Amino acid sequence: MKQTNRPRTALLALAAVPVLGLPVAATAVQPMMYEQKVARHEESLVIQNPIGGVQNSKWYDYRINVNESRKELASDLRHASDIEDQRDAWDEYGTELHQERGKYVKYMSKRGYRVPQVFFENL
Questions:
Q1: What pLDDT was estimated at residue 115?
Q2: Rounded Cα gap, residues 76 and 59, in angstroms
Q3: DSSP letters for 7-53
Q4: Which of 25, 65, 75, 84 is 20 to 30 A from 39, comparing alpha carbons?
Q5: CA–CA separation, 55 vs 48, rounded Å?
Q6: Does residue 89 sit in helix, strand or coil?
Q7: What is the signed CA dihedral for 23, 28, 33, 37, rounded to 10 degrees?
Q8: Distance of alpha carbon 19 from alpha carbon 14, whole angstroms
Q9: Structural contact between residues 33 and 89, judged by C-beta atoms closer than 8 angstroms
C-alpha cells in the first residue's frame, strides 16, 4: 500500500497560518538587558555538585536558596509593569546567586574543601 504525505502537508499549512497573523513587533527579538546578561553569567556559575562530594546542611541550604531565587525571579518578572521592574528583578537575581555561592564556598573552604579549578597553559 502506498502512503502519501498529504496529511503532513496539510498540518504544516495549518500550523503556519497563526504565525502569519502576528504583527512584526511580536516576532522581533529584543536585545538582552545588561542586568539579565550578568544574571545569566551568575546562573552559569551555579555549583551543580557538592564541593568535595560532601552533602551537608550548607549544600542543601545553597540548593534551596538557588531554587527559591529562581522562583522569585519568575514571580518578579510576571508582576513587572515596566522595564525598570524587569531590570530590578534580574539585578536582584544575579546578586542573590553571587552571594549564595560565595557563602557556600567560604564555608566549605573553612572546612578545608576547595572548589576544583582547571588551568590551561600554553594554548
A1: 80
A2: 26
A3: HHHHHHHHHHHHHHTS-HHHHSPPPPPHHHHHHHHHHHT---S-GGG
A4: 25
A5: 12
A6: helix
A7: 140
A8: 10
A9: no
The CA-atom distances, in angstroms, between 108 and each of 2, 24, 40, 94, 117 are 66, 51, 24, 21, 15
List the one residue out of 122, 73, 79 whose CA is nearest residue 96: 73
Residue 110 has which C-alpha cell?
573553612
Please state the pTM of the whole predicted model.
0.71
Summarize pLDDT for 18-73 with one digit per residue, the tens. 554 545 555 567 788 999 999 999 999 999 999 999 999 999 999 999 999 999 99
Rounded to the nearest angstrom, the gap between the alpha carbon of residue 70 and the centroid of all alpha carbons in its chain is 8
- Spatial separation of the C-alpha atoms in residues 39 and 89, rounded to whole Å: 10
pLDDT for position 94: 97
Q: Which three cell numbers stand for residue 4?
A: 502519501
pLDDT at 11: 46
Cell numbers linked to 25: 513587533
